[in-house]
């Protein structure tokens, strides 16, 4: 039952840049009036979103929403980076990972989950082409040939449902059409980086059309391993993905059929041992991001695929929709967790740690049926049913680095998750200016976790002292407990108290909102909404006992304004919010108890803040966007404590047992400030040609990596910028550009490992390249 895989080898009030840009805006705007008065001004196109499960103007939807599309998506993706490039690119969104390209963790308004286990859930839901991507590995599917990315902030517990208390990140691929069209893109950059995309589509008949798109990315290792490990270089990868869609358009029936596949082969997240100076979050003297010294394995491989069918029937006054989806993933990732090559059993490296996690078997089925009205009158509604079924195994493996990376431990668990829901929504145009909306959803969510196999020779399993044990079996004897569990199952017992667990949650969620049209271009809105995340289960292992976290619920209040002004040359969306999470699920990761993963419930946590999105044509040839988010989060539980780090400097008080009290701390990976900016300036030349410059910047303030506060594991503020200088001809059908990512080469720790030494991992360094794109 053991896998065999081959290894491939304090916070500023606002950022100065953001303040400076705001200060310049009024003067630039005044200057442009004089220079463009004699010609027709550029205007902003309306943005269509599907936040309410139907196509609407973003200005009419009473939810805080940001979108990313078009040239901005192209620029952000030019460096071959994975989905994490969206982090900070809209207000209040943070994305990080301790698995590299394979397992992104999303946070909206500071609300997320740092759990690194492969059976974890997140309070931010990711929806790709109307199909929820529940497993965290599925959330990393590459972004290519995408029409638009929507980020919906705040609970989306009515129309999108379970595991959406923080919000939804929604991706919509470009649909097939009757028009023959497509594009091709080739980019080459530092470290032999290749970034290739292509798509082609068009009519197959009068009713049928199709579109096929593909992605290929690769990069050589850019980190040299100076240690004795099997990998001479690290951080390289090659990744490919493909998507095929077929669209049938009848008079009253439409069918959109799709399938997709992904393959990733590369190095896992690179952990760097003892990179922090003791007593501070500065890197140690001589730190070099291009070098590391490790002696363990490092490899990551992933294959995923899926298919979906989105059907709709136009029944006159009604529309019936069916959305069916299937997803599966197979992944394995191994890394040198201590991030060093020894010497071990010293103050700097107390012990070696080399582990792997994988999913050898997985399936996810989803089915949604939705009926909606299509009335001309003031009242419209939608109602539906939703079913979710997931079944998968998770492997956890440990190795003895001091004995040639020989495997010394193994565990396989199985988790199933079944959920049913009924939902509905109403929209009522109460007056010419006032629109009211309400939504409701009732969900039943059931999980079962079973340990199928366990053995360990490298560590005594007596680190789990609170397990309930059958007669004659020591509390920490996991192998004995497994045998007792298997005997109980063989005897016909449905659930045993030792290693397995079952949960069943029932929850009613609702939301209510009102939108008032101040005039034709300005709307104000208010919204109150609830959401929930079902219970979570983590199995017992060599380092931790079985833990179960109760479901968490959130109540959120939001108010905002959405305005188009300056003759549709500028657009402003702004919102303020407050939320309270009751029984929030927290994960105590690592700490002095070892490589543990303990689930906890805090009495509550709170968040408050605001978001601002501004877009404006300052001149006909200069488009500027600005975004800002302020997110203050706080854990409120006077008695909640966790194990502190093994060797860092904790700044929180301790309880009587020597554990760290975390009451009043911010949530982990929750920056208080996020700012983003883009600017595009063009110089028209001959007909259909232009030179252009595009720059983008994203800033986040400092973050806590863990639930407690410490000097070393506090991530410094991070500012990353991109630059693109290009030439377009034939009305934009051809584009060639030079680009740079993280052009200031600011290197920061973005996460850490705290159970052994002062280990961390960092952001991507500066990268330069050239890219050519053609449309047809």
UniProtKB/TrEMBL annotation:
Every TonB-dependent receptor-like beta-barrel domain range: 287-743
Pfam families associated with the record: Plug, TonB_dep_Rec_b-barrel
Membrane topology qualifier: Multi-pass membrane protein
GO cellular component: cell outer membrane
InterPro entries in the cross-refs: Beta-barrel_TonB, Beta-barrel_TonB_sf, Plug_dom, TonB-dep_rcpt-like
UniProt keyword annotations, A-Z: Cell outer membrane, Ion transport, Iron, Iron transport, Membrane, Receptor, Signal, TonB box, Transmembrane, Transmembrane beta strand, Transport
Signal peptide segment: 1-31
Entry's Gene Ontology BP terms: iron ion transport
Protein location: Cell outer membrane
Domain TonB-dependent receptor plug: 58-168
Protein family according to the UniProt entry: Belongs to the TonB-dependent receptor family.
Identification of the protein by name: TonB-dependent receptor
Species this chain originates from: Stenotrophomonas terrae
């Amino acid at each position: 039952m053991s896998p065999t895989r081959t290894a491939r080898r304090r916070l500023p009030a606002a950022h100065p840049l953001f303040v400076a840009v705001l200060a310049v805006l009024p003067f630039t705007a005044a200057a442009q009036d004089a220079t463009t008065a004699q010609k027709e001004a550029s205007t902003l196109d309306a943005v269509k979103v599907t936040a309410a499960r139907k196509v609407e103007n973003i200005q009419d939807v009473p939810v805080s929403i940001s979108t990313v599309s078009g040239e901005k998506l192209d620029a952000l993706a030019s460096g071959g980076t994975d989905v994490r490039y969206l982090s900070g690119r809209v207000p209040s969104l943070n994305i990080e990972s301790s698995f590299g390209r394979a397992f992104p963790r999303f946070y909206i308004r500071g609300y997320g989950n740092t759990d690194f286990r492969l059976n974890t859930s997140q309070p931010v839901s990711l929806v790709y082409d109307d199909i929820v991507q529940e497993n965290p590995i599925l959330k990393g599917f590459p972004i290519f040939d995408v029409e638009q990315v929507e980020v919906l902030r705040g609970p989306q517990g009515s129309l999108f449902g379970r595991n959406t208390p923080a919000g939804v990140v929604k991706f919509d691929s470009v649909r097939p059409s009757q028009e023959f069209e497509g594009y091709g893109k080739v980019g080459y950059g530092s470290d032999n980086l290749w970034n290739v995309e292509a798509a082609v589509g068009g009519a197959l008949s009068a009713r049928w059309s199709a579109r096929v798109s593909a992605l290929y990315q690769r990069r050589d290792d850019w980190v040299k391993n100076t240690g004795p490990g099997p990998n001479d270089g690290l951080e390289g990868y090659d990744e490919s993905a493909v998507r095929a869609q077929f669209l049938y358009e009848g008079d009253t029936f439409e069918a959109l059929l799709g399938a997709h596949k992904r393959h990733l082969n590369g190095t896992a997240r690179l952990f760097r041992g003892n990179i922090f100076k003791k007593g501070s979050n500065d890197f140690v003297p001589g730190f070099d991001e291009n070098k590391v010294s490790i002696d363990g394995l490092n490899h990551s491989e992933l294959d995923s695929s899926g298919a979906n069918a989105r059907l709709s029937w136009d029944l006159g006054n009604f529309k019936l929709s069916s959305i069916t989806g299937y997803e599966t993933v197979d992944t394995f990732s191994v890394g040198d967790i201590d991030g060093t090559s020894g010497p071990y059993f010293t103050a700097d490296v107390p012990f070696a740690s080399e582990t792997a996690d994988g999913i050898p078997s997985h399936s996810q089925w989803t089915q949604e049926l939705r009926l909606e009205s299509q009335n001309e009158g003031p009242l419209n509604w939608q109602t539906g049913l939703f079913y979710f079924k997931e079944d998968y195994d998770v492997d956890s493996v440990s190795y003895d680095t001091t004995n040639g990376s020989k495997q010394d431990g193994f565990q396989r668990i199985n988790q199933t998750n079944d959920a049913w829901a009924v939902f509905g929504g109403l929209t009522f145009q109460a007056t010419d200016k006032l629109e009211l909306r309400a939504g409701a959803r009732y969900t039943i969510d059931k999980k079962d976790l079973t340990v199928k196999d366990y053995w360990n020779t490298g560590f005594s399993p007596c680190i789990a002292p609170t397990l309930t044990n059958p007669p004659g079996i020591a509390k920490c004897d996991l192998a004995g407990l497994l045998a007792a569990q298997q005997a109980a199952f063989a005897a016909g017992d449905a659930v045993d108290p030792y290693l397995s667990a079952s949960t069943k949650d029932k929850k009613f969620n609702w939301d209510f909102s009102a939108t008032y049209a101040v005039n034709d271009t300005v709307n104000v809105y208010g919204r109150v909404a609830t959401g929930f995340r079902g219970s979570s289960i983590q199995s017992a292992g060599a380092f931790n006992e079985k833990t179960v976290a109760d479901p968490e619920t959130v109540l959120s209040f939001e108010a905002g304004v959405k305005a188009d002004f300056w003759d549709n040359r500028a657009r402003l969306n702004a919102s303020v919010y407050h939320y309270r999470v009751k029984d929030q699920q927290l994960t105590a990761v690592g700490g002095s108890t070892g490589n543990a993963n303990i689930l906890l419930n805090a009495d509550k946590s709170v968040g408050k803040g605001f978001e601002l999105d501004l877009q404006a044509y300052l001149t006909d040839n200069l488009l500027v966007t600005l975004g800002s988010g302020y997110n203050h989060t706080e854990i409120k539980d006077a008695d909640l404590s966790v194990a502190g780090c093994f060797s860092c400097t904790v700044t929180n008080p301790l309880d009587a047992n020597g554990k760290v009290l975390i009451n009043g701390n911010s949530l982990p990976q929750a920056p208080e400030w996020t700012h983003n900016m883009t600017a595009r300036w063009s110089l028209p030349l001959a007909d259909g040609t232009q030179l252009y410059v595009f720059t983008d910047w994203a800033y986040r303030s400092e973050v806590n990596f863990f639930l407690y506060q410490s000097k070393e594991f506090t991530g410094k503020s991070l500012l990353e910028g991109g630059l693109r200088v290009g030439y377009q001809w034939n009305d934009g059908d051809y584009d060639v550009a030079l680009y740079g990512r993280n052009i200031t080469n600011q290197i920061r720790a973005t996460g850490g490992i705290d159970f052994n030494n002062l280990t961390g991992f960092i952001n991507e360094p500066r990268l330069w390249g050239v890219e050519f794109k053609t449309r047809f």
